[in-house]
Amino acid sequence: TLSDRLADTFKNLRGKGRLSEADIDATAREIRIALLEADVALPVVKEFVAAVKERARGEEVSQALNPAQQVVKIVNEELVTILGGETRRLRYAKTGPTVIMLAGLQGAGKTTLAAKLALWLKEQGRTPLLVAADLQRPNAVNQLQVNGERAGVPVFAPEPGNGVGDPVAVARASIDEAKRTLHDTVIVDTAGRLGVDAEMMKQAADIRDAVQPDEILFVVDAMIGQDAVTTAQAFLDGVGYDGVVLTKLDGDARGGAALSIASITGKPVMFASAGEKLTDFDLFHPDRMASRILDMGDVMTLIEQAEKAFDAEQAAKAAGKLQSGDFTLDDFLEQMQQVRKLGSMSKIMGMLPGMGQFRDQLENFDEREIDRIQAIIQSMTPAERANPKLIDGSRRARIARGSGRQVSDVNQLVDRFFEARKMMMSLAQGGGIPGMPGLPG
Ligand code: GDP
Ligand code: MG
C-alpha cells in the first residue's frame, strides 16, 4: 500500500532538513502510483501531481514534519480542496417547493438514492415527494414505489393503465401536486441508459426545463473508474448539474472517480452512498475521501500527531519563558513564524475572544513583514537576541547594515519586541489564551 511505501520513503528522508527536488520527486512518484491505483483518470493524475510538486517547491521547510510527511500533507490538503473543501449544502428554494432532479446512467443508483435522500430530508423535518419520471424500464415506477414506502415518503407516478406515460408531463405535474399537497421538496427520479445516449440526454434536459430544478445532482457509481471523466463530462454538457453523488462506496473502489469528476467538472461531491439500505447515505466528507483515495489514514494520523506534539512543545516553551521573564528576540521570531504557519494572522486572531481590539492592526498585517523581521533578528548576535537591552545605538547601526534595513526599522522592531513582551506577559499572568497552539498563553 501507499502507507508502506511512504514509510520506506520516510526512512530514506528522515533527518534531512530541506525539501529538496529529489525528496519531492520521490514522494510525488509514490503519490502518482497511488492515484492511478485508485483509478483516478490519467490526465487528472498528471495535473494533480504537477500542482503538488509546484506547491511543495515553494513551501517553507516545516520544523515539525520530515520532508516526505510535508509533501503528503500538501497532497492531502490539495485533495480535500479539489474534492470540495467543506461539504456544500443543498440549496432550498425561497418560495414554493425545492426541486431536486437526479441524473445519471442506468444502474448508477438513482432510484435507490432518491429514496435515501427523501428519508434523509424527512429526518431533517422536510416533507419530500418522490417523483417517478423514469418510465423507460417496466419496473422502474414500482421500484421507486417500493423504496418510497420503505422510506415512508409518498411517490407521485403516472396513473396505471393510462397508456404510455410521458416522463416530462409527469415531472411537470408533480410540481403542482407538491404545491397542492404542501410538500416542500420534490425529488425527481429520471431514466438512464447503460451508456451515454443522445435520446436519454434530451429527455433529461426536457425534464429539467419542465421542472426548473433548484439542484441537479449527477449520480455516479464509484466503481466506474476511468470512465468517470467522460460520463461526467457528457452529463455536464447534456444536462448540466450542480453537485455529484457518489454511490456504491461500500464496494472496494478507492474512489478515484470522485477526484476525477471533481477535478474535471469543478462540481462538488455532495453526498455519498455506501450500501443498499436506505440509511447507507450521508453527506460527503472530502477529508475522509482524500485518505481513502490515498489509502493513508494512518499516515495522516501520524502527521497530525507530529504537528500537535510540536506545537504543544513550542507553546509550553514560550509560556515557560514568559513566566520566567526571559522571552527573547529568538522566541519572538519563532512565535511569529508559528503564527504564520497557522494561517493568516487576522483570521486566527479573529477567532479568539477578546482580540477584537487588535483586529485593525492585524488586518493590515503584512506577511512579508515577518521576512523583514527575520532578516533583522538574524543580523543580531546571540547575546543581543537573548538580551535585547544590549542593543544600543552603534549596535543598531551595525544590525541595520547587516540586514540591509534602515536604523529606524531596527528601532521599530526593538520597540515592538518590548511592547509585545509586555502585552504577552500580562496575558500570561491573566490566564493568557488557553490552548492556542503557537501563541503564548
Ligand atoms: P438507477 O438505475 O440509477 O436507478 O439505479 P438503482 O437505484 O436501480 O440501483 C442499481 C443497483 O445498485 C440496485 O441493485 C441497487 O440496490 C444497487 N445500489 C444502489 N446504491 C448502492 C450502494 O450505495 N451500494 C450498493 N452496494 N449497491 C447499491
Ligand atoms: Mg432507476
Biggest sheet, open or closed, and with what strands and sense? 8 strands, mixed
Number of strands: 8
- Strand percent estimate: 5-15%
- CATH architecture assignment of the largest domain: 3-Layer(aba) Sandwich
Q: Would you identify the CATH H-level superfamily of the largest domain?
A: P-loop containing nucleotide triphosphate hydrolases
How helical, in percent, are the residues?
55-70%
Distance between the termini: 41 Å
What ligands can be seen in this structure?
A: guanosine-5'-diphosphate, magnesium ion
**Overall 3D geometry?**
elongated
Give the strand order, joined by hyphens, for the main sheet.
3-2-4-1-5-6-7-8
Count of the domains: 3
SSE ordering: HHHHEHEHEHEHEHEHEEHHHHHHHHH
- From the helix content, strand content and strand pairing, which structural class follows? alpha/beta
* CATH domain class of the largest domain: Alpha Beta
Low-confidence stretches: 347-357, 432-441
Radius of gyration: 29 Å
Question: Overall mean pLDDT score?
Answer: 82
Number of helices: 19
Binding site for GTP: 104-111, 189-193, 247-250
EC number: 3.6.5.4
Subunit structure: Part of the signal recognition particle protein translocation system, which is composed of SRP and FtsY.
Catalytic activity: GTP + H2O = GDP + phosphate + H(+)
